[in-house]
Amino acid sequence: MITKLLIANRGEIAVRVLQTAHAMGLRTVAVYSDADAEAPHVALADEAVHIGPSEAALSYLDMDKILDAAKRTGADAVHPGYGFLSENAAFASACAEAGICFVGPPAEAIDVMGDKAKAKTAMEDAEVPTVPGYRWEDQEGADPATLQAEADKVGYPLLVKAIAGGGGRGMRRVDASSELADAVATARSEAINAFGSGDVMFERLVEGARHVEVQVMADSHGKVLHLGERDCSVQRRHQKVIEEAPCPVVDEDLRARMGEAACAAARAVSYVGAGTVEFLLGADGAFYFLEMNTRLQVEHPVTELVTDLDLVELQLRVASGEALELDQEDVELHGHAMEARLYAEDPENGFLPQAGRAVRWTPPEGIGVRVDHGLGEGQVITANYDPMVAKVITWGGDREEARRRLDRALAETTLLGLTNNGPFLRQILNHDTFVSGEATTDFLEASLGEPEVPLPEDHMAIAAALWLKERAPTGAWRSTGGAVSHLDLSLAGERANIRVSHQAHGLNVSDGERSWTVKVLSQGAASTARVLVDGVQRNVRFAREGDALYLDCGAGSRAYTETIAGGAGDTAGSGETVAPMSGKVLAVHVAPGDTVSEGDPLVTMEAMKLETKLLAEVDGTVAEIRVNEGDQVQGGEVLVSLQQSEEEGA
After folding, report:
1. Do residues 482 and 364 share a domain?
2. pLDDT band at 15; cut points 50, 70, 90
3. How far is CA 345 from the centre of its chain?
4. For the chain, what is the domain count?
5. How does residue 573 score in pLDDT terms, banded at 50, 70 and 90?
6. What whole-number distance in Å separates Cα of residue 639 and Cα of residue 627?
7. CATH number of the domain to which 470 belongs
8. Is residue 275 part of a domain?
9. pLDDT band at 479 (very low <50, low <70, confident <90, very high)
10. With 70 as the cut, is the pLDDT of residue 174 above it?
11. pLDDT at position 482, please?
């Protein structure tokens, strides 16, 4: 039996594994980078070892440092979580060679299933249905004309997919022959940055399909079980956003057939531990193997809630050599569960990852609500890691109850200081297509591809009332009324001149076009304020820190500042290209003196494992380049300056 467990990960999954390990009576070890020195998972573990700088390649991806930490602390097992080294066959082998138990499948299974080409061959041999595609050996020397011809045979639309890794990275959709070369180049570049390998393959895109995955669990004594399926069709850029179990359209017969196919896939590679077999499910009920994730999935909690099983505990017991006590007939599904991934990203600005400080963080509570997170209030989210900060999960007696509970839980989540996708998640949950259980993999792109999160009309009035409340005591607060305050508030570059008249019954707030009567009735826990606006009470969440007031009145965290005359203006259209977020410069596409047109690529950045091309906003000539390839830059930093053409500048 394992006695001391090292968790080779960070954030919410590290906390999740630590909780079960402690419940089983195990001693635990955390590892951490510079960025995570004060993270919750570090304090939760019995021991913690610093493993290097914030950059993942120099810390969480450094096998030698992880193994050294295990040896120094006497850990006899390593749980890799998900991401980082979790699907690295070399790491699994290195653990075995060091006499340390790797909580996961054998290295050979990781190797086969981690290579999409090998995995597809293995599945074809095991008679598991697969999607038509094309793969080739000589990746560097492949003839472009041959690739074009083979892609044409596969048919369009198709996907160019990284052979190593997953999570939607190194994957590009191709709708016509003319798009193939660029898609291959981009997919290879992204795959190299994410996985260290630029090998790709072609796969026919099955449109209008659902992404349905089956959870499997296997022991070292030959038993392989499936624990039901999860519907992960709600995706953006192949990244899962909302998951649920069971799938709304899978009946008992289809569940049994998909489950047996998943078990056959696991047996084909002598699998041991927790794994997930992903399928595309067509509208006709036909399903096709996509890939197998040889680790615990991000979305495993929905399976736990409908099966009443602790998957981490099963992982640890199987890794210790124990036989599964369950038989297939013992696995029963109860009710329905949903999970929403809370990301630090800006849905209204191309879903750009956001770095910054979690000024206030209070997760929701309630019947049927579970929150998995590794976030501490005041913690800084950096551009070094994935932008997911928490998973909000709910269970209900049926799908509709689970959906309503998740919507309310997100509404009651306090996350101030970080722009996040909470309001966007609620838009998904309340969209007719999702409510009816009809979402397929193209749902988000077709229905919510460019979301807008409208602010309530009275948001500036509420901000002004809270701003003055936080500023008190001042001479403006008089019970007899009559005093007037003026505020110049700014939100995302938009300014509003607010006139506030202090009356006995509250504040009369005007922005020059409309006026509201506002009163702050009370301030409670979780940075909640009860406000009365034109006779209607409601709760808002706010925090004042430094020069900013962070306010969420139903549209996510927004930062309000008091504008000082003569301050810096917006750079849009000025010829200056600024970094939209903190990250790394992957490529600079221009040189001083180059003539560019609006829309031409200037710089490619990478942040939180995603690439973003920054384009020229005006026609002009490159006047100055302030960065080089490989530089780390901060959000808002000027990267390239253009001298606008006379027509543009006029």
Report:
1. no
2. very high
3. 8
4. 5
5. low
6. 6
7. 3.30.700.30
8. yes
9. very low
10. yes
11. 58
